[in-house]
Amino acid sequence: MKARSRSSSIPKKRFNERTAIPEREDWSVRRIVGELRRLGSRRNVEGMARYGIRAKKVFGVSKPKLDALASKIGKNHSLGLALWATGIQDAKILAGLISEPRKVTIAQMELWVRDFDNWDSCDGTCCHLFVFAKDAWAKAFAWTKREEEFQKRAGFALAAYLAYRDKAAGDAKYLKFLKVIEREAADERNFVRKAVNWALRNIGKRNSRLNRAAIATAWRLQKKESSASRWIAADALRELEGEGVQARLREREQKNDGE
Which structural domains are found in the chain, ordered by start? Predict the structure, then answer.
């Protein structure tokens, strides 16, 4: 590793041992794409494909390496927009990590959601960025009506993330979303039904009132003719009625009563 010479008056760039990236240099899209290419792995690309993550342009950078790179770059919304525009899967995930939620606009959300072409870009963007945007709830409801598989998934993924990240939201919003879940549960597409199930389970773990409401929703779904609805219901009921969830909810209520 090169270190700054104490005897030289000319400052030299300092390198990080793990990544060999100059630490005090401006980041550009070209430089980041080059770094993503270097960090990528064909083996990871093949592994991603086995889990349903397929993209036209992908280098196969692992999530820990993306997190480390995002930490080095820091928050930079304009750079995030430019990275997303490359269409590279790894760059899109990184874009969600470095973009600034307070700067996210409806136009950006609509532009990006149309680019979701796998569950990873969908869930990663919703988890790291969109869930914190001011229009998250509006888009969660709106996108559940979309026909495109990953746009529709995004609506339910957002609701699932909101259920544990939005501490201030009242029960009314979640009770309203349970009706959306009941409306859309017949969608047989794998990545949609899994997201519907995910949202139902997360809402049902928020508090006892929502747990009872989510369980009631699941029991109604179990009586539907749709195989997707019955699968969603059975899987959700196993968790929501299970002793693990029930014990945590009782403990939470006791703690709240004691405050």
Answer: 9-99 (no CATH), 116-259 (1.25.10.10)
